[in-house]
Amino acid sequence: MSNKQKKVALITGGSRGIGRATSLLLAQNGYDLCINYLNNEQAARAVQRAVLAHGVRCELYRGDVTKEDQVLAMFEFIDQHLGHLTALVNNAALMLPQISIEQVTEARLNKIFSSNITSYFLCAREAVLRMAHKHGGDGGSIVNVSSLAALSGSPHEYLDYAASKGAIDTMTIGLAREMSREGVRVNAVRPGLIYTDMHADGGEAARVDRVKYSLPLGRGGQPEEVAQAIYWLLSEQSSFTTGDTINVAGGMN
Ligand code: NAP
C-alpha cells in the first residue's frame, strides 16, 4: 500500500465494544471509516458522532454480514461513498448462552458459524477483490478478531464459539499466504475477557469479573487495549508481519 494513499477502513460490528474502540482509534489516526452494525442504530450513531469529531469521513452501514447480498451491497456502498478500501477489520461475531456438547443443535451451530466464520470469509473476499494487485488494487491490510477461546476450547461453556475462532486462526494463516505477493497483509488478534456487552449475549453479563483472577494480570481487559493491537496490525508499523496473531488476553496463552 502506498504511503500517500488515503486510509479507508471497514469495521464490521463497529458500533459497540471492541469495534467501537477500534473505530475511535482509527479515526484519531486519520482513517475514513465505514462502521457496520446490525441492530442498534442509536449506538452506531453515537460512534459516528465521536468519529466525525476527529475530522475524518464516517459512513454507517446497517447490514447483516452473514448474508452475501448484504455484504456485496455494503462494499458497493463503500466504493461509492468512501472510495478505495485499504483496511478491513473482521470483528462482528456472536456468542450464545453457555452449553455443553449435549445441548448442541444444528440451528445453534449454523448461527454461530455463519456469524463468526462465513461473515469473515465473505468480507475478506470482497476486500481482496479491491486490494490485491492481481485485481488492480494497491494493497491493504486485514485484521481478523479471533479469541483466546480458539486456544482454550472453552469447555463446558462455548465449544462452538471457540471452534469458530479456531477456524478464523486457520483462515488468517492461509489467506495471508494466498495474499503474500498481492500487497495484502492478513493478521489476527486473540482478545480474552474484555469488558463488553458480548458476555450478556453469552448468558453471563458479569463473566469477566467472575473469571478475571484466572488471568496472569488478574483483571479483565478494556476494548481500547484490543484496539491498539488491531491498529498496529493494520498500520505500516507492522509492515513485515503477516499471517500472525497477537494475544491480547492478560497473559493467557
Ligand atoms: P459486542 O460488544 O457484542 O459487539 C458486537 C458487534 O457486532 C455489535 O456492533 C453488533 O451490532 C455487531 N454484529 C453482531 N452480529 C452482526 C451481524 N451479523 N452483522 C453485522 N453486525 C453484527 O462484541 P465484542 O465483545 O466487542 O466482540 C468483538 C469481537 O471480539 C468479536 O469477534 C468477539 O468474538 C471478539 N472477542 C471478544 C471478547 C470479549 O471478551 N468481549 C473476547 C474474545 C474475542 P448491533 O449491536 O447493532 O447488533
Report on this structure.
There is one protein chain. Helix 4 (106-131) runs parallel beside helix 6 (159-178). Helix content is 43%, strand content 15%. It has helices spanning 17-28, 41-52, 68-81, 106-131, 149-152, 159-178, 198-201, 207-211, 223-234, and strands at residues 8-11, 32-37, 58-62, 87-90, 140-145, 184-191, 245-248. It has a seven-stranded parallel beta sheet with strand order 3-2-1-4-5-6-7, sandwiched between helices. With 253 residues, it is an alpha/beta fold. It is built from nine helices and seven strands; from the N terminus they run βαβαβαβαβααβαααβ. The chain starts with 7 loop residues before the first strand and ends in a 5-residue tail after the last strand. Helix 4 (106-131) links the parallel strand 4 and strand 5 (140-145). The model has no long low-confidence stretch (mean pLDDT 97). The protein binds NADP nicotinamide-adenine-dinucleotide phosphate. Residues 12-13, 15-19, 36-40, 43, 64-66, 91-94, 115, 145, 147, 191-194, 196-198, 201 line the site of NADP nicotinamide-adenine-dinucleotide phosphate (NAP). NADP nicotinamide-adenine-dinucleotide phosphate is lined by residues 12-13, 15-19, 36-40, 43, 64-66, 91-94, 115, 145, 147, 191-194, 196-198, 201.
